[in-house]
Amino acid sequence: MxxxxxxxxxxxxxxxxxxxxxxxxSLLMDGNLVNGAAHAAIGVAAATFVAPWAVLLVVxxxxxxxxxxxxxxxxxxIRKKTTEAEVVAA
Length: 90
Hints:
Layout: H1 6-21, H2 25-30, H3 33-49, H4 52-68, H5 72-76, H6 78-89
Helix pairs in contact: 1-4, 3-4
């Protein structure tokens, strides 16, 4: 999870630098080997078959999952989930 302490910021910086070298590196550093290896494989496939922007999405998702515990898609859907919860509550 995210940590505002100097050590937490340093750790997140190291994770981000690792992501520039290998997609999924931050998850691998956390010890989440299955998710990290999956992000690495998808990142390599995205670089090979799709485009550089696709690799950026994989890197952003991996870093987001490592730091916050949520995938990138979960962060984007927060507004939709809040709206649905308001409708149910009404």
